[in-house]
């Protein structure tokens, strides 16, 4: 059974389809969260309301995963006691810490810029993978790709002759910190997915991380979120994004090398930019946005332009 699953999920076309679906979902999260802030009247200074909003989203995601497993007969039981601290740590890292920075940062920058800056997660992943996987050592080609990619991140913040908005630590800075934490979580997910079901990993880490987020938000006074039918439907979609994308990504990481999967993340800023233009009416044809997207995409492609035999190990 395991060999059959490996054959399916290592197939190039299956990998491509599932990775692109995940990246589209993640790309759509940028404008969706911004719209959610508007629907719920969450302002730039409403930090704890943002944390509670994130907590609700990920708690709903975990319930979706558990419900799917229950209906489909999939087991989400953690087989060893040693698995409990592993998924707990991942929940704190990937859901609580990463998305605290992400939600606050995204509220202080545009959906377009946020989606481009978040792609720095790929470059952090490449650097970190060098220290954990022999098949993902840094080479001249990969270093050049990292430089090219970060050049795109810098260009995304340029306007005229300077940095757009002076580069806000609590805006663009927090999005980049979120990306670094996400890269660390991706490496750790790959490590623990050898022994734990991807559905269990996603479900429990989202549940644990969301409960902590809600507790922090409530403790800070962020209890005044009043949902309307429109905002609740949007919350359901955001919950679905996390449930589907995290689970699919965990499955792909389980059966494929980090490098082979990460190549598709270059589409996240492209999806995010396009959807931000459609739903937020943000500028789409600006020179800096286009140049940044091109640099980021070329950087990731360059990083992953290695022989398949090396990437898949």
Instruction: Note the overall shape.
Output: globular
> Residue share in helices?
over 70%
Low-confidence stretches: 308-313
Number of strands: 2
Determine the N-to-C terminus distance: 21 Å
Order of helices and strands: HHHHHHHEEHHHHHHH
Helix count, per DSSP? 14
How is the largest sheet built, in terms of strand order?
1-2
Summarize the structure.
The protein is mainly alpha-helical and 313 residues long. Helix content is 75%, strand content 1%. The radius of gyration is 19 Å and the shape is globular.
Describe the structure.
By secondary structure, the protein is mainly alpha-helical. Helix content is 75%, strand content 1%. The protein has 14 helices and two strands, in the order αααααααββααααααα. Strands 1-2 form a two-stranded antiparallel sheet. A hairpin with a 2-residue loop joins strand 1 and strand 2 (162-163). Helix 2 runs parallel beside helix 12 (267-280), helix 3 packs across helix 4 and helix 7 runs antiparallel to helix 13 (287-303). It is globular. The protein starts with a helix and ends with a helix. Residues 308-313 have low confidence and may be disordered.
């Amino acid at each position: 059974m395991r060999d059959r699953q490996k054959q399916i999920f290592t197939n190039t076309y299956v990998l491509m389809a599932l990775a692109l679906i995940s990246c589209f979902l993640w790309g759509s999260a940028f404008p969706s969260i911004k719209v959610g802030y508007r629907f719920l009247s969450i302002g730039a200074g409403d930090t704890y309301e943002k944390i509670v909003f994130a907590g609700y989203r990920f708690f709903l995601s975990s319930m979706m995963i558990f419900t799917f497993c229950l209906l489909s007969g999939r087991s989400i039981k953690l087989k060893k006691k040693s698995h409990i601290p592993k998924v707990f740590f991942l929940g704190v890292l990937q859901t609580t810490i990463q998305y605290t920075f992400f939600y606050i940062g995204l509220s202080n920058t545009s959906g377009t810029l946020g989606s481009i800056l978040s792609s720095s997660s790929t470059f952090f992943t490449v650097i970190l993978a060098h220290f954990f996987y022999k098949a993902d050592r840094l080479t001249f080609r990969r270093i050049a790709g990292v430089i090219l990619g970060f050049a795109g991140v810098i260009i995304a913040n340029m306007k005229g002759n300077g940095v757009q908005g002076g580069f806000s630590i609590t805006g663009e800075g927090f999005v980049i910190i979120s990306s670094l934490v996400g890269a660390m979580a991706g490496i750790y997910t790959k490590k623990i997915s050898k022994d734990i079901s991807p559905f269990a990993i996603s479900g429990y880490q989202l549940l644990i991380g969301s409960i902590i987020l809600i507790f922090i938000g409530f403790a800070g006074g962020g209890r005044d979120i009043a949902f309307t039918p429109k905002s609740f439907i949007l919350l359901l979609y955001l919950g679905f994004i996390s449930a589907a994308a995290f689970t699919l990504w965990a499955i792909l990481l389980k059966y494929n090398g980090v490098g082979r999967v990460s190549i598709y993340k270059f589409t996240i800023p492209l999806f995010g930019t396009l959807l931000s233009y459609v739903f937020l009416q943000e500028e789409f044809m600006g020179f800096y946005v286009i140049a940044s997207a091109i640099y980021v995409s070329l950087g990731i492609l360059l990083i992953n332009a290695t022989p398949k035999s090396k990437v898949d190990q």
